[in-house]
Amino acid sequence: MTSTKEAQKRRCLAVVLAAGEGTRMKSAMPKVLHKVAGRSMLGHVLTALGDAAIDEVAVVVGPGREDVAREAQVFAPKAQMFVQTERLGTAHAVLTAKAALEQGFDDVLVVFADTPLVRTQTFINLKAALAEGAGVAVLGFEPADPTGYGRLVHEGDKLVSIREHKDANEAELHIGICNAGLMAIDGQQALAWLGQIGNGNVQKEFYLTDIVSVALAAHHHAVVVTAPEDEVLGVNDRVQLAAAEAICQGRLREAAMRNGATMIAPDTVFLSCDTKIGRDVIIEPNVFFGPGVSVGDGAVIHASCHFQQATIGAKAEVGPFARLRPGAMLGEGSKVGNFVEIKGADIGVGAKVSHLSYIGDAVVGAQANIGAGTITCNYDGYNKFKTEIGAGAFVGSNTSLVAPVKIGAGAYVGSGSVITKDVGDDALAVARGKQMEKAGWAARFRAGK
Ligand code: UD1
Ligand code: CA
After folding, report:
1. What residue owns the CA closest to ligand 1's atom 1?
2. Can you say whether residue 282 is alpha, beta or left, with left for phi > 0 and alpha for psi between -120 and 50 degrees?
């Protein structure tokens, strides 16, 4: 047995295949940029690789796919990019990264960008099999329905070849253990072995899977590393994309709950890969977390909220039916109630925006109280303007704050005001029509009808 420490000393190249056409997605966007839990499938794969002690990453993209290369660089800034100009099969795709393979590595890990749920540990397991002497380590699994997958052909308990579904005979089609696609290859041999693969099969493609028989012919041996089906799901269409999303959501919910959050109906809470949820957070049903959201300890999220790029402070209370848009920052113990939308605004410690408001491009001081129906009028059709509300201010219901405008600390604003000028600290501002009354008018009016 080789120790993990020794395995880590080996130099590893990961070749990520992202040149698929993804025609079955029926999309203007390349398949690997479709998102699972708010992150592209390519981003998922590169993130999992990032923790697997990989020395170099090579990404193989299709021609003209600068968008895929750009996305790869977000998650692996040092990755080398290779363009596969013709889609001639998975072995051909790996050979596109020849210049990277020639740099000389102990291990070459081949990873599919359309298989987004593989865990870091599985990459480590594949590498470990090479460290223990295998020439090729194939990732295998037992799918409920093996249709379409390559079959792992054994003689006794020895892996001898992989047969693609389309090339398999009747007996081979009955094999339950399948190829997940990913594999690890001896880096000293990879180029030579890949070069020996031909395209004499029904699809006239250069199959990476043929490397198993090539390695055996060269007196090396191939092994199978297994993973559960929910880790190796490949996404070829949007039905499989939804299946991957469901699995990923399950993992994220479980992690949040194990970390100390309560979810009353976890199946109705949708998280992003980067959602951060503290301890003793309570999340009621039907809440959607877009990317970039963090929730502090002890916060309560009532039912039916939608969040994106927002920070919810400790012990804050949000919803039901609240929307937090990019740049919403809720201070500790603050409250954002029903039918309230917050965008680009700091809500101070203990401040309250309890009902039916839009607060955009604003700073609300600590302990301020924003009455029902208050609107910051932040946009004139061309530019956005800022509203500043001082600590402890009290803004009466149904107020329009026409930005740019400042409400001083401790000031009061009368309900129904349209505030266009700054209000001093501790002042009262009322900006609405004066009430008048005509005694008995209504009775005279009715009598006349
Ligand atoms: C592949 C495996 C199959 C396995 C299955 C698991 C081969 C020959 N077959 O089949 O044994 O059961 O995955 O999901 O490897 N790609 C390129 N360039 C190419 C061809 C493919 O970059 O020329 C990329 C695709 O973008 C994709 C990956 O390689 O990310 C796999 O290709 P795909 O055509 O989807 O292979 P499968 O038929 O699914
Ligand atoms: Ca596939």
Report:
1. 181
2. beta
